[in-house]
Amino acid sequence: TLAFVFDVTGSMWDDLMQVIDGASRILEHTLSRGSQAIANYALVPFHDPDIGPVTLTADPALFQRALRELYVQGGGDCPEMSVGAIKAAVEVANPGSFIYVFTDARAKDFHRREEVLQLLQLKQSQVVFVLTGDCGDRTHPGYQAYEEIAATSSGQVFHLDKQQVTQVLKWVESAIQATKVHLLSTDHEEEGEHTWRLPFDPSLKEVTISLSGPGPEIEVRDPLGRILQKDEGLNVLLNIPDSAKVVAFKPEHPGLWSIKVYSSGRHSVRITGVSNIDFRAGFSTQPSLDLNHTIEWPLQGVPISLVINSTGLQAPGRLDSVELTRSSGQPLLTLPMRPLSNGSSYQLWGGLPFHAPQERFYLKVKGKDHEGHTLLRMSGVSYSGVPPGAPLVSMPPRIHGYLRQPLLLTCSVHSALPFRLQLLRSRAQLGEERHFQGSGNSSWEIPRASKAEEGTYECVAVSRAGTGRAKAQVIVTDPPPRLIPATNVTVSPGETAVLSCQVLGEGPYNLTWVRDWRVLPASMGRITQLADLSLEVSAVIPSDGGRYQCVASNANGVSRASVWLLVREAPQVRIHTRSQRFSQGVEVKVSCSASGYPTPHISWNRDGHALQEDSRIRVDAQGTLVIQGVAPEDAGNYSCQATNEVGTDQEMVTLYYTDPPSVSAVNAVVLAAVGEEAELVCGAAGVPPPRIVWYRGGLEMILPPESSSSGTLRIPAVQERDAGVYTCRAVNELGDASAEIRLAVG
């Protein structure tokens, strides 16, 4: 999942514009690669005290539309409900997702960070923060929550000016890879220089180094000690001198590469690669030959075993050890690994039981590939021990339902053991008890909600290790206002347009109008909100055209509907090539586009007459003229004409027939006696007619016009020194052709 978590307070206007534009490029870049990097898209807006609504879709066009329908509101208050919004994104996102948080404020709900950290261990997703502000205090727990979330997920915190958001989004385009693997993740509290010698195996197609911190510098040396320069394959993806630097390169040689970084302050380093060799880790209190019977985090205080599932590793490749490392990169513990027998050789590996450290740690997996090259991979998240015991149960604290509409109650349980699940209300069980072998989600639906369904519901999961509970308060209210938008409005320039939305329901409501993601004031120049809450646009100009949103709200929520204002415009034709030359037999395409409203009809004329289409000549649905197997008689003037109810416009293009030159010698050898005239003749053809140039010995012969006519070179009173090879060269704009004639003097 590609997820954007976006702060929609008023101060984020510039950021929103850049994110909308950048998202389009990211989606186009991802789709053009044809990779399976992105399965779906999520958008989570937040604005104190509201989070959402959450958009989750597999349709990139729908995702972009949801982004464009965002509008900023209110002032630039600090702080914001950002951690809850991140949690919502991690919950809906697939495992291994890319989550980008855009805000200019620290977190108000930082007390929820532990929930997010546990979820990130479960989902193995990465969270990157793009901060254009932090409320001015980086020692506050509301800011430090961002650093902790980023460090846990191998993400980073980027501090930018608002005009630099576009630069980060250009880096995001290349950062989203389906086969991304982690090679190094470190965090450093103070300024300093750090050097790592990392083994790069042949499967690494590309390596990216990301350094977040002030005054960032990166140096890369290959296994021979040579510094990689910009003109030698080091691609700078992002360079913000006071905040971040990201470089990428394709390692041409396997072996130990040296990476040196420097920052003048607190900083973090992430090194990733593109490779099909990676691993997944699971933890278990009992020996296991099935990764599905493990859990995603270690348990505190009891011996646990580590199971590693390697992917893409060919025999006789192997894993030798797993090193537990601090966030600074220092080792904590090394566990030797051995293959586990489950019928799938070289895939499952295990180690001796160990006790989880008290501090957070990364897993660094070391081994050899099938050719004996050293392998190094790191976990995408850092781990912390969780106390063993009862199932972990979660429900939304408040579930909002609407009268006479379906209401869904959902409960999420994470457990290392089989468990029984019940939904209770006032200690009475609702429905049947459900049984699960491991972690899972369960839902109960109330088909038609009423006030009688309000109250406290409890989800109870019972396993051999204990009982887990979570409660939710269900509130049922009248639904938000229901909107019926009027039909789209079409006017001519200078006229007055009235846009309206019909609101259903008897309760009080507020109605505002939004355009270009900003709320329109009740009166602004030519735009006025009338007493009946419709929107009047007087003296319409073409730039007034576009989508307007009416937003109706009451105490129960918000509804939106779109109305389009369409402004009639006379056509304007544009032919992208005014003249075009062609050779016989090729296919010629001349594209013609036309703006205007209503959409103009495009037709083609030739020499003032309507173009007759046949099996060779046609106009496609986009208005492009297509001539197949073009012939000399197709040369001429063609006009593209666009017509709608407002008017007509046209442009002309000229097609010229051309033919590359050809040349041949009438006689390959010419004999002449001393004192006689010699005549060397070349026949040339081509359109336009080619110019004839004569050469002798590779040098162009400068001749008076009368001495060379129609490809004939005359040499009066031949001498013995005139003997040799002469070249006639025919030249026109399409190219040239040559022929040789030997003059023999006897």
From TrEMBL:
It comes from the Eukaryota. Residues 479-566, 571-654, 661-744 form the Ig-like domain. Its main location: cytoplasm. The keyword Oxidoreductase does not apply. Pfam families: GBD_Hemicentin (PF23560), I-set (PF07679), Ig_3 (PF13927), VWA_4 (PF25106). Coiled coil: none annotated. It is found in: Cytoplasm; Endomembrane system; Secreted. Transmembrane segments: none annotated. Keywords: Cell cycle, Cytoplasm, Disulfide bond, Glycoprotein, Immunoglobulin domain, Membrane, Secreted, Signal, Transmembrane, Transmembrane helix. It is a single-pass type I membrane protein. InterPro entries: GBD_Hemicentin/VWA7 (IPR056475), HEPACAM_domain (IPR052280), HMCN1-like_VWA (IPR056861), Ig-like_dom (IPR007110), Ig-like_dom_sf (IPR036179), Ig-like_fold (IPR013783), Ig_I-set (IPR013098), Ig_sub (IPR003599). GO terms for cellular component: cytoplasm; endomembrane system; extracellular region. This is Ig-like domain-containing protein. It comes from Otolemur garnettii (Small-eared galago).
